From TrEMBL:
Membrane topology label: Multi-pass membrane protein
Cellular component GO terms held in the UniProt record: ATP-binding cassette (ABC) transporter complex
Domain ABC transmembrane type-1: 65-269
GO-annotated biological processes: amino acid transport
Compartments reported by the entry: Cell membrane
Listed Pfam families: BPD_transp_1
Family annotation (PROSITE patterns): ABC_TM1 (PS50928)
Protein name: Amino acid ABC transporter permease
Family affiliation: Belongs to the binding-protein-dependent transport system permease family.
UniProt keyword terms in alphabetical order: Amino-acid transport, Cell membrane, Membrane, Transmembrane, Transmembrane helix, Transport
InterPro entries listed in its UniProt record: AA_ABC_transptr_permease_3TM (IPR010065), ArtM/GltK/GlnP/TcyL/YhdX-like (IPR043429), MetI-like (IPR000515), MetI-like_sf (IPR035906)
Amino acid sequence: MQDTPNPPQPQPIQAKPLRHPGRWIAAAIIVALLAWFIISALNNEAYGWSTYAAYLFDTRVATAALHTLALTVLAMLIGVVLGVLVAVMRMSPNVLLKTVAWAYLWIFRGTPIYVQLVFWGLLGSIYQSLNLGFTEIDLQDLLSNMFLLAVIGLGLNEAAYMAEIVRSGIQAVPAGQMEASQALGMSWWLTMRRTVLPQAMRIIIPPTGSELISMLKTTSLVVAVPYTAELYGRSIDIANSLFQPVPLLLVAATWYLFITSLLMVGQYFLEKHYDRGASRELTGRQLAALTDAEGAVPHNVTIVSTPPKKGSH
């Protein structure tokens, strides 16, 4: 019996990457425009670079940056704690708690933060004392503390947004987790505290980092209280005394960029830490296609073998 000759083996495809001259032209135009802007700004006396250099590390500005950080941290603490409480109340089977949580979100998300801060600043003129019937509490000293009012105003507003983030994280937990906890005899509150919230943290933590960065920039609005010892308010005070607003605004922007960059680095590592638990199962062919599309090997991928097709030998 004559042997059948083996068919010729296919040669590997010599793929050549497509050329994109339009991308290089667009990149060159952007670089040229950026260089032109930087050179023109450095040669423009209106920017006041000498004043900028003199006040960049001024003690008053550095102290104001610390006040900005204090406002950010304290307001976020109030926002996170109260946000978790409001989110749980909104998902509670109790109609009264659900209604109170909905009204809270409606008020604080439906009005501008600047308007809220102005109202907090005027609170001292509305309430001079608190009458409890058997005694009267003087509120003048408490409501004249503008730093405290700024923290409360920022924190209560942030709680409304954190509540929605927490609620999204809770709803992402499979319903079977709550059913299993209730089958074990756990109450609704105990199920939330012991089962649902710990699992939801993986989804809640990353956007909370973005809210922290946003809060840092929102502190510039506390001049509406008015509280002017933070970074933006202090820079404006110095600018008004020098009649040079532009260089002092650049000083404030530089400090904001510096602090924001540090927070963004921390957010990156935090998201990377919580992303470790997320993994995908792909076949070798799917991994190759995804790598070719993204231009890099994706992380957190487990390669699984492709099951043989029916009828194949």
